[in-house]
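Predict the 3D structure for this chain.
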Amino acid sequence: MSHLTLHRPADATPEPKFLSFREAREALAARRCHRAVDRARHEFQNRSCPRCRRVTVEARELDDHALNRNGAIIPLTATVVGFQCSTCWHEWQV
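Done. Predicted structure below.
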């Protein structure tokens, strides 16, 4: 059972604007690239438990996975909110 508390601040809603298909595709690709880099950076920085110093750490994720065209979950696309050690069960937030 996870004991992490999550807080999602209310984002300011931007004004809607019309995008061409090319601009929308480029914006989506850039956002995915940054999410992948951020996720890799977080996993690298939190690869060992701060309490027991073991490397048995698992990421704790939100249920917001990206889906492929068949509706299957794409691995490693969920938002990482924290980590949990599989040995001592210590949890910490990102």
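The chain has a mean pLDDT of 83.
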